[in-house]
Design a protein that fits this description.
- The protein has 261 residues and is mostly helical.
- The chain folds into 2 domains: 1-30; 31-249, no CATH class.
- 77% of the residues lie in helices and 0% in strands.
- Helix 3 (52-67) crosses helix 7 and helix 5 (103-113) packs parallel to helix 7.
- The longest helix has 55 residues, at 172-226.
- The two termini are 26 Å apart.
Length: 261
C-alpha cells in the first residue's frame, strides 16, 4: 500500500472539507446541478475519448500501482547475485527450485531454465517491459484527460449559471441558485482535477518508472546468469541501476540468500 498517496488524498480532502465547515453553512457548497454538469460531462468526455475496455483497464492499473509494493532495486540485485552464484556453482536447472516473489524475475529465470538463447530471452522480456509501460502510459493519459475535462466542464457550468442568472435578473430569488451553479461547477472541476486526477496521473508515472527500473535490473541480471558471467561482474553491472545514495546506504552489506522452495 502506498501510504503517501493515501495520506495525501485524506489530508487534502480533510483540509478542503475543514475550510468549508468553518463557513456559515457547509450545505451551500452542495449543488446537484453543478455535480451533474461536472461529473456527467467529465465521464461523457472520457468515454468519448477512450474505449470502455481501456477505461476499465486503467482502474486496474491505477489500483495496482498504488496498492502493490515494489521490491527495492538493491534487494533485487542481491537476489540476482545469489542466483548467479548458485547457477555458476551447480547449474541453471537448479534455479527451477528457487521460489521468487517477483513475477518478472521468475519469468526470466524460467526462460533460462528452459534453455532459451540470450537473444530470445531479451526479446521476450523487453516485449513485456514495453507492454507494461504502454498500459501505464495509457492509464496516465486517461487520468490526464480527466484532469483536463473536469475544469473545462466547470467552466461550462459557470457559463450555464451565468446565462440563467442574466435571464432572470427581474426575479431576485432566481439569481442565487443560478450564481451557485456558476461558481460551484468551477470549484468541483478544479477539485477533481487538482486533488485527484492530475496527482494520481503523476503518481502513476512515477510508479511506472520504478517498475521499469526493476524490470531492467531483472533483465540484465538474467542475461548475465544465462551467459555465465561472474557474480561479481553481475553485481557491479546491476549497481549502475541503483542511485548513488542507495549504493552508499547499502555499502558493505552482503547479499541475502534467495529463499528455497
Amino acid at each position: 500500500m502506498d501510504l503517501a498517496t493515501i495520506i495525501g488524498v485524506i489530508v487534502g480532502t480533510l483540509l478542503v472539507l475543514g475550510a468549508i465547515a468553518l463557513g456559515k453553512s457547509p450545505l451551500i457548497f452542495v449543488d446537484g446541478p453543478s455535480l451533474l454538469i461536472v461529473l456527467g460531462g467529465t465521464m461523457g468526455a472520457t468515454l468519448i475519448r477512450n474505449p470502455l475496455s481501456a477505461i476499465l483497464g486503467t482502474l486496474g492499473v491505477v489500483r495496482k500501482a498504488f496498492t502493490t509494493k515494489l521490491p527495492d532495486p538493491h534487494t533485487l540485485v542481491q537476489q540476482i547475485v545469489e542466483l548467479s552464484k548458485k547457477a555458476r556453482k551447480e547449474s541453471l536447472l537448479t534455479l527451477e527450485k528457487i521460489q521468487l516473489n517477483d513475477p518478472f524475475l521468475a519469468r526470466g529465470v524460467s526462460l533460462c531454465v528452459d534453455g532459451l538463447e540470450p537473444g530470445q530471452i531479451r526479446a521476450v522480456l523487453e516485449a513485456q517491459i514495453s507492454a507494461t509501460s504502454a498500459r501505464h502510459r495509457r492509464g496516465k493519459e486517461i487520468l490526464d484527460g480527466i484532469g483536463t475535462a473536469a475544469p473545462a466542464f466547470g467552466m461550462i457550468g459557470t457559463l450555464i449559471g451565468l446565462v440563467q442568472m442574466l435571464t432572470a435578473l427581474e426575479d431576485p430569488s432566481a439569481i442565487g441558485p443560478a450564481m451557485a451553479v456558476a461558481l460551484l461547477t468551477t470549484l468541483y472541476g478544479a477539485l477533481i482535477a487538482n486533488l485527484f486526477a492530475l496527482p494520481l496521473a503523476d503518481k502513476l508515472r512515477v510508479r511506472s518508472q520504478e517498475e521499469s527500473l526493476n524490470m531492467l535490473v531483472c533483465l540484465e541480471g538474467v542475461l548475465g546468469i544465462v551467459q555465465g558471467e561472474h557474480p561479481g561482474c553481475i553485481d557491479e553491472k546491476l549497481k549502475a541501476f541503483i542511485s548513488p545514495k542507495q549504493r552508499g546506504a547499502t555499502a558493505g552489506k552482503g547479499p541475502r540468500a534467495a529463499q528455497a522452495a
